[in-house]
């Protein structure tokens, strides 16, 4: 997969080269390129924003800068992702859709966002997803882009050491993941649940499912349907 990110703070994206993502880059599974939006400005101030039509607070990012930038960076067969609190929710399902793409381009806005015509223009020739990582407002799209990129890239075959680990994630079966334990068996007066020590794999699977359901009921009842089971059907593993 190829990922391009455009930002006025390219160094904000440095974490993309660390840990598992860095290893995926080293192994040729992933190519990441980060671009400074100001490279597409032509004025002495390298201005990327202007005051909004219609008035109001804040600044809007200029179409005359973003347009030529995306002409260069975002070909018609890529998916343009625009992180914005006004986007559709970014969920595990969206991550699973995006992991099948060969090229993603992230356009990180700051201020009050990017002139809408930039998105509308790319949508005339390609695919655009305006996505929000949650019901809160960040200062810019960079942190949201990193969150989305991590969750997409870890689903690509070969990125995680053990493919089963993402098939057991919270959300992959529509439920939250239950608790996990490792050695020692007793620690600060707290013990590992005995069922995990017994080696009865059917009992362990049953117990884990009950824990998932109980946790989901307590923390995220919105994920359950009227019958108390996961509202979201699991997606089959990729071929
Ligand atoms: N930019 C600012 N806030 C955001 C959010 N919640 N999700 C995605 N992009 C954002």
UniProtKB/TrEMBL annotation:
Task: Please tell me where this protein is predominantly located.
Answer: cytoplasm
Q: Which family does it belong to?
A: Belongs to the RNA methyltransferase TrmD family.
Catalysed reaction equations from the record? guanosine(37) in tRNA + S-adenosyl-L-methionine = N(1)-methylguanosine(37) in tRNA + S-adenosyl-L-homocysteine + H(+)
Q: Where in the cell is it found?
A: Cytoplasm
| Gene source species | Williamsia herbipolensis
Q: Mind giving the lineage of the organism this protein is from?
A: Bacteria, Bacillati, Actinomycetota, Actinomycetes, Mycobacteriales
Q: Which gene encodes it?
A: trmD
Which Gene3D superfamilies does the record associate with it? 3.40.1280.10, tRNA(m1g37)methyltransferase, domain 2
Q: Which GO CC terms are listed, alphabetically? A: cytosol
For this entry, the protein name equals tRNA (guanine-N(1)-)-methyltransferase
- The segment annotated Disordered runs over 211-239
């Amino acid at each position: 997969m190829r990922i391009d990110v455009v930002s006025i703070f390219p160094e904000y994206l440095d974490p993309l080269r660390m840990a598992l993502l860095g290893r995926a880059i080293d192994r040729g599974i992933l190519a990441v390129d980060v671009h400074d939006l100001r490279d597409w400005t032509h004025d002495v101030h390298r201005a990327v924003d202007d005051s909004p039509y219609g008035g109001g607070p804040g600044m809007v990012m200029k179409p005359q800068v973003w347009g030529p930038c995306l002409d260069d960076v975002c070909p018609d067969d890529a998916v343009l992702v625009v992180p914005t609190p006004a986007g559709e929710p970014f969920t595990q399902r969206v991550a699973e859709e995006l992991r099948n793409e060969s090229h993603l381009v992230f356009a990180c806005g700051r201020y009050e966002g990017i002139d809408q015509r930039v998105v509308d223009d790319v949508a005339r020739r390609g695919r655009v997803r305006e996505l929000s990582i949650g019901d809160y407002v960040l200062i810019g799209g960079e942190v949201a882009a990193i969150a989305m990129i991590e969750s997409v890239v870890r689903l690509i075959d070969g990125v995680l050491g053990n493919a089963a680990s993402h098939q057991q994630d919270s959300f992959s079966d529509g439920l939250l993941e239950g608790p996990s334990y490792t050695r020692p068996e007793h620690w600060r007066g707290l013990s590992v649940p005995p069922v995990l020590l017994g080696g009865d794999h059917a009992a362990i699977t049953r117990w884990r499912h009950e824990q998932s359901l109980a946790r989901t009921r307590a923390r995220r009842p919105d994920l359950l349907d009227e019958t108390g089971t996961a509202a979201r059907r699991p997606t089959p593993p990729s071929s």
